């Protein structure tokens, strides 16, 4: 067997590491950066060795560049800054599409188990180090040698272990003690990460809560879907006069209300109607009034008797029609539907109301505080809101 490993078709570093892991009781890896794609390549081999311990000494961090993940020297920081930078590098490397797989979720649980059992120990070099060194302490039944090491160009990544052209050499007949001493001295001066309980918990928390592994509650999943939908929803511009009317009436133009009006206009345009729904006190009536202002047509408001308002237009829906300039809108009680129907017919004598055809609109004030705006008749008539 050749001592040179170049990730050729005959032998990859991954296959050689897997063979050596099966015969080892301790591993010492000095690598440029800790990238889970490399560790996961060795998942099956590590899983089979229940008593194996792995020391990983990280020389650099990782940063997400335009063309993927690239190495960078962090310079000299205080320990806390180095640890924070390392945690950020872990988070960045985990939060890529490569790790959003079923296998990742299964494998990462195993590596968290190694961390909790102190079988995977991670330290950060005191100063930036670009070396790649893989040391294997072999089991006692291995005849003729008790240790060996591999050094060369391969980093602990999927590409470095198998798919990318590299050049590494395996050595067992000389220099093993020197390689061990070199690693141990760097290890002695390195910044401790997983051996400190608080830092280990922080690392596991970063992996479990700030990466693809984060478990979502049903409510969080719903909120994420809703947020994505709202951000993707089409919006129409609203008139400056509607905003000015709002200010003149003494209302604060909150962005969520402005956004709601713009989205409602787009929905009305596409679906001939819209439902405005929210908890009590967030201004559904104001949103509906601004929307009515921007529709630029006649209309009717149908609501419970207690919400009609006084004739001086200082309360209820009559107040909103005054504040938002809805001078051609009529307010009707839900108990006066017959009168409202006569008004509609007089306004344009439209055919029988039919959902999705025409431009009359209706606003229902229901017990659950829903506002329903829909088209119900032909374009020759006014609007019911």
UniProtKB/TrEMBL annotation:
Q: Which Pfam families match?
A: PLDc_2
Q: Which InterPro entries match?
A: P-loop_NTPase, PLD-like_dom
Q: Which residues form the Phospholipase D-like domain?
A: 107-187
Protein name as annotated: Phospholipase D-like domain-containing protein
Organism source for this protein?
Answer: Candidatus Jacksonbacteria bacterium RIFCSPLOWO2_02_FULL_44_20
Organism phylogeny: Bacteria, Candidatus Jacksoniibacteriota
